[in-house]
């Protein structure tokens, strides 16, 4: 009977089942890669308030806490300011978390094709693990900042590499990546908030999170099903892949008209892109990079410049706990909107950027005039903020994947990622004087 079943099996059905299973593996693989890539970055921002509370003892006669990050008082600041300010804005951690990423995204698209994908992933795994170790065993703010920088290197290199990698797979992996990066926000912020609030020491919390780089390695090397000619351990220039092998192979039915209009434009040039080609592509990407930078400037100015100052003393939550849950709810909004690409696409991304700027203006006035009645209203605003930011990110990269030719798509996906990092870095710079102004009142 077994022999008869195998003879009568429909090869087309077997192939279709295999294709569906392969698509599922690749989409799942990119989901996990997105989660793992952004995880350390999110954890460092969630820990920003606590990182800055860990100060060097000013008097040798004062008992020194045991070595390790964040020996805090539970977040109840003794600062006399009504804002409960730290001496340094959490923007300090934001800048350490974003400037290395920004520099990588700004320059790497012009040379990263010389580094094999396998090597890039190993570097991402190593730097993420080092970031958790350095921050968990730090005894000073600046040692913690060094650990944050390692997390930034891992996240920046990983994002531009994995976005470029999507062009070698079917169309659905970009949705998986976007959803996974949104999931990283929830997982990172929630786990840090929940574990520390459950009285697990910050050091042990971060050491537990060393599992995440290991999951990244498994997701990439075990879960993904690569095309036969994929340049895993050799530079892409040494790969003789045709443009057909690099482009996504499967399209959704509702994309057919869009594909015919945009993707159907044949790129008749061959060979690697020149520097002049890349500059020309960057000019065309400005209509995506600018709104991406604007929306991320507004939301990170809120997150790292204003949220720390929205402190409600009548709440049962301490200052540190309020800040952690602001970050967690923001990330929940990001996860929901980045997953929405499966069912809805938004082309008017400028509208999303404008609405995020409105959020920033409203919260600036809320900090100055302190007219918001309770922390719960801020929770709702922060959730909405995350929805706008996540939707902007995932729809912009979806549009780029549709509107660029086969030859330039890999570079375009990596190069456009500089937009969010530029906006975040600029918000960190602006957040410093804003923090100092409000704390001086």
From TrEMBL:
<dbReference type="GO" id="GO:0045121">
    <property type="term" value="C:membrane raft"/>
</dbReference>
<dbReference type="GO" id="GO:0007040">
    <property type="term" value="P:lysosome organization"/>
</dbReference>
<protein>
    <recommendedName>
        <fullName>Battenin</fullName>
    </recommendedName>
</protein>
<dbReference type="InterPro" id="IPR036259">
    <property type="entry name" value="MFS_trans_sf"/>
</dbReference>
<feature type="transmembrane region" description="Helical">
    <location>
        <begin position="349"/>
        <end position="369"/>
    </location>
</feature>
<keyword id="KW-1133">Transmembrane helix</keyword>
<comment type="similarity">
    <text>Belongs to the battenin family.</text>
</comment>
<feature type="transmembrane region" description="Helical">
    <location>
        <begin position="285"/>
        <end position="303"/>
    </location>
</feature>
<keyword id="KW-0472">Membrane</keyword>
<keyword id="KW-0488">Methylation</keyword>
<dbReference type="GO" id="GO:0043066">
    <property type="term" value="P:negative regulation of apoptotic process"/>
</dbReference>
<dbReference type="GO" id="GO:0005769">
    <property type="term" value="C:early endosome"/>
</dbReference>
<dbReference type="GO" id="GO:0006897">
    <property type="term" value="P:endocytosis"/>
</dbReference>
<dbReference type="InterPro" id="IPR003492">
    <property type="entry name" value="Battenin_disease_Cln3"/>
</dbReference>
<feature type="transmembrane region" description="Helical">
    <location>
        <begin position="411"/>
        <end position="434"/>
    </location>
</feature>
<dbReference type="GO" id="GO:0005802">
    <property type="term" value="C:trans-Golgi network"/>
</dbReference>
<keyword id="KW-0458">Lysosome</keyword>
<feature type="region of interest" description="Disordered">
    <location>
        <begin position="62"/>
        <end position="81"/>
    </location>
</feature>
<dbReference type="GO" id="GO:0051649">
    <property type="term" value="P:establishment of localization in cell"/>
</dbReference>
<keyword id="KW-0449">Lipoprotein</keyword>
<feature type="transmembrane region" description="Helical">
    <location>
        <begin position="176"/>
        <end position="195"/>
    </location>
</feature>
<feature type="transmembrane region" description="Helical">
    <location>
        <begin position="30"/>
        <end position="48"/>
    </location>
</feature>
<feature type="transmembrane region" description="Helical">
    <location>
        <begin position="323"/>
        <end position="342"/>
    </location>
</feature>
<feature type="transmembrane region" description="Helical">
    <location>
        <begin position="91"/>
        <end position="112"/>
    </location>
</feature>
<dbReference type="GO" id="GO:0051453">
    <property type="term" value="P:regulation of intracellular pH"/>
</dbReference>
<feature type="transmembrane region" description="Helical">
    <location>
        <begin position="145"/>
        <end position="169"/>
    </location>
</feature>
<dbReference type="GO" id="GO:0005770">
    <property type="term" value="C:late endosome"/>
</dbReference>
<keyword id="KW-0967">Endosome</keyword>
<keyword id="KW-0636">Prenylation</keyword>
<keyword id="KW-0813">Transport</keyword>
<keyword id="KW-0325">Glycoprotein</keyword>
<keyword id="KW-0812">Transmembrane</keyword>
<feature type="transmembrane region" description="Helical">
    <location>
        <begin position="207"/>
        <end position="226"/>
    </location>
</feature>
<feature type="transmembrane region" description="Helical">
    <location>
        <begin position="119"/>
        <end position="139"/>
    </location>
</feature>
<dbReference type="GO" id="GO:0005765">
    <property type="term" value="C:lysosomal membrane"/>
</dbReference>
<dbReference type="InterPro" id="IPR018460">
    <property type="entry name" value="Battenin_disease_Cln3_subgr"/>
</dbReference>
<keyword id="KW-0597">Phosphoprotein</keyword>
<feature type="transmembrane region" description="Helical">
    <location>
        <begin position="375"/>
        <end position="399"/>
    </location>
</feature>
<dbReference type="GO" id="GO:0043005">
    <property type="term" value="C:neuron projection"/>
</dbReference>
<dbReference type="GO" id="GO:0061024">
    <property type="term" value="P:membrane organization"/>
</dbReference>
<dbReference type="GO" id="GO:0051246">
    <property type="term" value="P:regulation of protein metabolic process"/>
</dbReference>
<dbReference type="GO" id="GO:0006865">
    <property type="term" value="P:amino acid transport"/>
</dbReference>
């Amino acid at each position: 009977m077994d022999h008869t079943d195998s003879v009568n099996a429909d090869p087309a059905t077997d192939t279709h089942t295999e294709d569906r299973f392969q698509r599922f593996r690749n989409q799942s693989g990119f989901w996990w890669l997105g989660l793992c890539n952004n995880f350390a970055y999110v954890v460092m921002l969630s820990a920003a308030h606590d990182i800055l509370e860990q100060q060097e003892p000013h008097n040798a006669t004062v008992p020194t806490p045991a070595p390790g990050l964040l020996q805090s008082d539970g977040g109840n600041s003794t600062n006399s300011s009504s804002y409960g300010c730290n001496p340094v804005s959490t923007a300090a951690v934001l800048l350490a978390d974003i400037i290395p990423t920004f520099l990588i995204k700004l320059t790497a698209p012009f040379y990263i094709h010389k580094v094999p994908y396998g090597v890039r992933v190993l570097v991402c795994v190593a730097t993420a693990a080092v970031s958790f170790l350095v921050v968990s065993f730090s005894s000073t703010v600046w040692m913690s900042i060094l650990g944050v920088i390692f997390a930034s290197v891992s996240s920046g290199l990983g994002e531009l590499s994995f976005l470029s990698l999507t062009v070698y797979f079917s169309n659905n992996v970009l949705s998986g990546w976007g959803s996974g990066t949104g999931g990283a926000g929830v997982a990172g912020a929630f786990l840090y908030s929940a574990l520390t609030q459950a009285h697990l020491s910050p050091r042990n919390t971060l050491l537990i999170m060393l599992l995440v780089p290991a999951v990244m390695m498994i997701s990439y090397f075990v879960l993904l099903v690569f095309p036969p000619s994929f340049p895993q351990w050799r530079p892409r220039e040494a790969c003789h892949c045709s443009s057909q092998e690099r482009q996504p192979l499967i399209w959704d039915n509702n994309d057919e008209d869009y594909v015919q209009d945009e993707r159907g434009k044949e790129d008749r040039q061959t060979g690697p892109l020149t520097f002049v080609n890349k500059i020309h592509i960057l000019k065309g990407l400005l209509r995506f990079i600018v709104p991406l930078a604007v929306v991320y400037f507004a939301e990170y100015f809120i997150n790292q410049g204003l949220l720390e100052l929205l402190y409600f003393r009548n709440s049962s939550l301490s200052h540190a706990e309020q800040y952690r849950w602001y970050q967690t709810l923001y990330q929940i909004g990001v996860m929901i909107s980045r997953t929405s690409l499966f069912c809805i696409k938004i082309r008017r991304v400028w509208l999303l950027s404008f609405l995020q700027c409105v959020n920033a203006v409203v919260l600036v006035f809320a900090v100055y005039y302190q007219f918001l009645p309770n922390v719960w209203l801020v929770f709702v605003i922060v959730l909405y903020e995350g929805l706008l930011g996540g939707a902007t990110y995932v729809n912009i990269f979806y549009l780029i994947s549709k509107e660029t030719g086969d030859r330039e798509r890999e570079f375009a996906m990596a190069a456009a990622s500089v937009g969010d990092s530029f906006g975040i870095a600029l918000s960190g710079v602006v957040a410093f004087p804003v923090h100092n102004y409000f704390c001086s009142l």
